Structures are given as structure tokens and as C-alpha cells.
Design the sequence.
């Protein structure tokens, strides 16, 4: 029986996107008898890509202008991951279909202009995509494994048109479930850390190695949300069943980590 273990990038492509990457991921899933992903992927999606899409939606609500929304996106240029996800959301939902001036005035009033209309149409598309994606997280054909006691799997609220979660991070007072499991598997963590140390030129590898060392040597100390996210790729290598294939669009990082534990990683 063939088994696929999805990383966060594949879950995001399936749930949030409708582009060629979405299609490739859906086709790839059909090659396997069983498909699963760890709850950690939902944690990453909630605080990562979904957060960016919600931020963009809420800017549409508060700014009411496509031009001002684009300027707001420019202001987050230093937040690389947030910017990347926001740009992907614009590419997915920001196309403007031509409408006659008569139909614009009928729907949006006499003061309607392309800037306002374009913003509102993107807002509507974002809201639909976000709502459908989060509601389908349990029902797109994959089982959720490796439940996290610290993860708050909540429904979002819509207040005054704004989409919000009560919290984006985990409930840290209960401790990090992933860190606890890693602290009990020091040999596995050591192998994953060696992969990170093999390429110290990359900042993410340096941070990953530091956190992996921390969870084994000082397991009693809590790790924060940033530290938890920094070990993300290693988490999938750790949790993937030995007979499964880790499906990821980031083979550069997942490939060596999976191989260190005798596991396989592939692109969709």
C-alpha cells in the first residue's frame, strides 16, 4: 500500500490555491492509496499562508482601495514569507474582470470607480477562498495524524467584515507537543541536526540547529512560536511513517532531512 505524507506547502496548494500548483498536487494525491498530514501542517498554515491571506482581505475591508492595498503590501517587504503569501493571494484573486460603467454604477453606486471596485471584488474572492479552505481542512481526502495538544484548532470569526482568529500561535502554557516528542528521541534529533549543520550558510539552518539542540539538552524550557516554526521541515521528517513518501514543493530542505532518517521525499 502506497502512502503519502503531506507537508504544509502541499496542504496550502490544495486548500487555498486554484492554479497549476494546485492541480499538480491534486493529481499527485491520486497516486497513493492513503494520504495523511500532521496537525503541525495546519498550525503552519494558520500562522503562515492563511494569516497572510486574511491580512490581505482585512486590508481590502479597511482600505477600500486597490491602490492603498498594494501600498500596504509593499510595506511588509521585509517580512519575506508574509509578502510571498500575500503576492500569491493577489495573483490568485486580484484579477479584474471588465465591467461596463452602467453595471458598475448599478452595483456600487454612482461614485463607483475601478480602484474601489477592483478592491471589493478581490475582497469577495479572498473571503470565499479563505472560508472554503478552512472548512475543508478535514475533508479534502487526507487524514490528520499526530494531533498536537498545544494547537488551537479554532474556527475564525468575522466581525465588522474583518476575518480573525482568537490566536494564531499555540497555547504555550501547556508546553510544545513537538518539542516534547523530540526530546524523547535524541538520536533522531541528532541526525536531523547534522543535516542543518551541514550548510551553515543558510540562516534557517543555523536557527534550526540551535532549536534542535535546545529541545534535547534543555527539554524543560519552553520554546516560543518562532522557534517552533524554525524546526518545521524537521518535524515532517520526524513524524512521517517509515513507509510513506513525504510530498513537498520544497524538496531542497525536505529531501536531506528525510534521507537522514532513511525516508523518502518527492515533489508532486
Sequence:
Amino acid at each position: 500500500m502506497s502512502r503519502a505524507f503531506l507537508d504544509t506547502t502541499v496542504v496550502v496548494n490544495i486548500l487555498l490555491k486554484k492554479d497549476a500548483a494546485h492541480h499538480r498536487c491534486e493529481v499527485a494525491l491520486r497516486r497513493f492509496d492513503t494520504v495523511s498530514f500532521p496537525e503541525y501542517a495546519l498550525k503552519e498554515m494558520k500562522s503562515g499562508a492563511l494569516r497572510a491571506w486574511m491580512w490581505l482581505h482585512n486590508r481590502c475591508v479597511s482600505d477600500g482601495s486597490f491602490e492603498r492595498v498594494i501600498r500596504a503590501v509593499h510595506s511588509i517587504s521585509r517580512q519575506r514569507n508574509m509578502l510571498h503569501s500575500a503576492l500569491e493571494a493577489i495573483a490568485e484573486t486580484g484579477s479584474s474582470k471588465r465591467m461596463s460603467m452602467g453595471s458598475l454604477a448599478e452595483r456600487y453606486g454612482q461614485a463607483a470607480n475601478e480602484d474601489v471596485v477592483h478592491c471589493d471584488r478581490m475582497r469577495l474572492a479572498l473571503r470565499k477562498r479563505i472560508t472554503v479552505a478552512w472548512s475543508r481542512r478535514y475533508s479534502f481526502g487526507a487524514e490528520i495524524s499526530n494531533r498536537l495538544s498545544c494547537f488551537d484548532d479554532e474556527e475564525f470569526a468575522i466581525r465588522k467584515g474583518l476575518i480573525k482568529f482568537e490566536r494564531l500561535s499555540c497555547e504555550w502554557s501547556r508546553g510544545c507537543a513537538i518539542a516534547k516528542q523530540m526530546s524523547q528521541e535524541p538520536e533522531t534529533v541528532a541526525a536531523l541536526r547534522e543535516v542543518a549543520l551541514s550548510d551553515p550558510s543558510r540562516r534557517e539552518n543555523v536557527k534550526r540547529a540551535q532549536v534542535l539542540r535546545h529541545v534535547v539538552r534543555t527539554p524543560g524550557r519552553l520554546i516560543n512560536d518562532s522557534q517552533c516554526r524554525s524546526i518545521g521541515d524537521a518535524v515532517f521528517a520526524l513524524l512521517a511513517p517509515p513507509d510513506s513518501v513525504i510530498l513537498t514543493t520544497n524538496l531542497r530542505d525536505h529531501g536531506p532531512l528525510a534521507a537522514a532518517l532513511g525516508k523518502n521525499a518527492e515533489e508532486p
About this structure: Strands lie at 3-6, 34-38, 143-145, 157-159, 162-164, 244-247, 264-266. Residues 37-164 form one domain.
